[in-house]
Design a protein that fits this description.
Blueprint (H helix, E strand, L loop, with lengths): L7 E8 L9 E7 L5 E7 L4 E4 L5 E4 L3 E6 L9 H10 L4 E5 L17 H13 L5 E7 L1 H12 L6 E5 L11 H11 L1 H11 L15 H5 L7 E6 L8 H10 L3 E6 L5 H4 L2 H14 L6
Parallel strand pairs: 6-7, 6-8, 8-9, 9-10, 10-11
Antiparallel strand pairs: 1-2, 2-3, 3-7, 4-5
Helix pairs in contact: 1-9, 2-3, 4-5
Pfam families: Abhydrolase_1
Keywords: Hydrolase
Protein name: Alpha/beta fold hydrolase
Length: 288
Amino acid sequence: MSNRPAGHATRSTIRPNSETGQGPGVRTFLRTADGIAVDSVYDPGPVVYETGPADGPADGPADVVFVVAHGFTGDVDRPHVRRVARALAAYGAVVTFSFRGHGASGGRSTVGDREVLDLTAAVEWARGFGHARVVSVGFSMGGSVVLRHAALNPGTVDAVVSVSSPARWYYRGTAPMRRLHWLVTRPSGRLVGRYGFRTRIHHRDWDPVPLSPVEAAARLAPVPLLVVHGDSDGYFPLDHPRMLADAAGEAGELWLEPGMGHAENAAGDELLARIGRWARARTGRGTD
């Protein structure tokens, strides 16, 4: 394992940017603090023009960068993750990555625990491109990770968006969550995860149990938090988003979306555009 600091790029390749056409993107493996290689993609988003010292406008990086944390069994190349990246790229640069145990990233999934280290590496990498503001946007499992990351690493992000997140751990109140627990806790389920969903799941239980999402939400102020949840979410009922927003107090804002299901697949382009505008407004960068 490497002893390099979190966020160190172990391999970097420049590739044409297929997301926006604004310029080259970067794909690399980042090294987390515990030595996991995390497959990551940077999209520069729209070009921003600023006044140069003497010779007129000079182009620079977008002022906001979104760091997108996908849901369980997702990865950076999944169509729904790429669609989210394309939508948010209209409002800033975008970093996407595969959590440990997902896609081409190393390690095994801990289903939201040590994934905070993956997000930490991605946020540090995003900061290094020179953007003025960083906004973390997480879906489902990723929605819980962005909450815990911001609570455990104060000052590293300027706003947080948590979509379809649980508020508390070990929830089994819906059929999809009972299936997910079987996938994670049973050897046969982990085999299905590996070969059916390209997700390698760690066999160990949490020890200690990580800070819960609702406890994390209570620690975020003054960082703005947007909680987004569908009223047709089959995984987590509406008490989960309400608990998160209530815990955040004045720093929290709750959007309950009519007819929306769960996570990235249910987040339409119009909703993603509203999230982009919200993030720019709450970080002081306007809405254009």
